[in-house]
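Q: Start with the shorter request: fold the first protein.
A: Done. Sequence, then structure:
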Amino acid sequence: MNAFRKLRDVAVLTRPHNCLIALTSVLAGAFLASGQIAPDAVPASVMAFFVCAGAYALNDIYDVTSDAINKPGRPLVAGRLTRQDAGALVIALWALGLGFAMLSGWEVVLFCTGWMAALWLYSWKLKTLGLVGHVAVSAVASSGFLLGAMTGGNARAGLMPFSIAMLFHLAREIAKGVSDARGDRAAGVPTLAVRLGVDRSLKVALWCIGGVIVLSLVPYVFRLYGYLYLLPVVLVVYPLLAICILKIIRAGNDTAAVERVSGAVATLLKAAMPAGLVAFFLAGV
């Protein structure tokens, strides 16, 4: 039973469901590039999974103080895992990621080491730089499409999904920052929501969501992608984005309401991600 609990806490720490999105984005980029999944894309996608998992564990190490207020049930805050446990886990996961990167070639190894460096810098310092931190982690989260397209032999095919995903992740990161603002402020972490205020920060997320809607139409309008791409976008992604927009508008400048809806907005945006990935796969058909 103790082993099961420990394994459950490791899963809570590493968020494997989120890491699957990173894995799938690499495969989607590869499929967009060539209409098939290149052999090198498979170990590259597994690398993305492990690097992402390690990054989540690393982030929790740095966020113990703020999580004590925002998320007191997290494994490190509750004492079910120690920082030493988490540190060893980060090393093991990133070593696995680097090992799988080596199976795909030196370009993927460069991606892997670049991701690890950027994600460590984010947890250590960049998240305290407001919008800069949000942009940095969103760029890393979205660049799986570029990596996948590179393994498929056509890196340019990853530019459009990277751009759309970048705005999408940026909106979600800002919304998450708003929901965590109380703990970040108490911990002395000057995130965008702490610097700008929660109401204005969520308005920035609103503009990002609007940008996603406009930009996601571009590849269809210019016939880069066909109608199959548009189906999950219109049927699933846009309705969820519309709900996010309505929630943000209704919250207005009411700080309590903004803090209340920000978590729901972040959850809705994450719920839309699988449909977006399906859309990119269908664009490659």
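Q: Next, the second protein, separately.
A: Sequence, then structure:
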Amino acid sequence: MTAGLRVELLRLRSRRAVLLLVLLGLLGCVLLIGFAVTDAVPPSAAELASAKAQVDQQLADPEFQQMLTECRTAVTAGGNSQFPADLDCDQMLPKAEYFVDWRAPDFVEQFRVLLLGITGILTLVFALAGVTFAGADWSSGSIGTQLLFESRRGRVFGSKLGAITLVALVIGAVGVLLAWGASYWMASKWGTTALIGNDPVTGAQVPLSRTDLVGRALRALALIGGGGAGGFALAMMFRSSLVAVGLVAGYGLVGEAVLRSVSSGVEPYLLSSRVAAFLDGQYLIYRYPNVCGTSGCEAEIIRISALQGGAYIGVLIVVVTVASLLLFRRRDVA
């Protein structure tokens, strides 16, 4: 580890705003896991008894019994428009699980959901931390003092960028491990740990491997680190925390909505679509024709892969970082 990086890590640790952001981010991750565990807990005996009572109440309903009798009579007679001949009338019978809002936790799906939430929280946290880290140097004027002792601006920029990115990756790794451990614990206690996923198009179950899950975790780490680097680079470019935060918030809250309203064909090129593809492995966009032809109204499926999403995000971060570095090396700092 270079001396410059060690110095910047110490300076980053001394930023109270950064420490507060990190603590809030970790707290958000813990709360998210806590809510997930609460939802995964099986229903209590009282809840099951209440569901059983609702089943008995529906079975005792004369209107339901009449409908069930009509269904069985119609199916026996060859079916009609309301009850086709191949209909299984017993599927109409109520079950206790219909009245209980609970599903056994699945390790793969639980990890996917938790990882998405934790990645979103920590990416936002470190984007703000990167903005704060750089913006504080400009607002206090300490960046000028630093350059008196280290005149090589590229090294100063690289040390600061490396510090925020390294911390983001370390904290991100903690978040990923929390998601993995909590998901596996819930699934092994109340559900299934089978490595099986669902095809997003057909819905069919497909086998997965631990490599698939590790790849998902590494992509989450990359995005968290990229969030810290991107926030830092934007603040260094504009020399202001407010401008950097305003730019990001403006795009996220208004920019994409305006772009979507202007053109329906812009969705594959939006940052949110590419981020979703990168994190989830792929992102599917369904485009339905305005007029249905002889072949029906089949939707056109646009598939964005994780590689396409990652390349898009990577190029964006590199362009912003390089532009920020060039401006930092050429502009007056006084």
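Q: Describe the second briefly.
A: The first strand starts at residue 196 and ends at 198. The CA atoms of residues 247 and 318 lie 18 Å apart.
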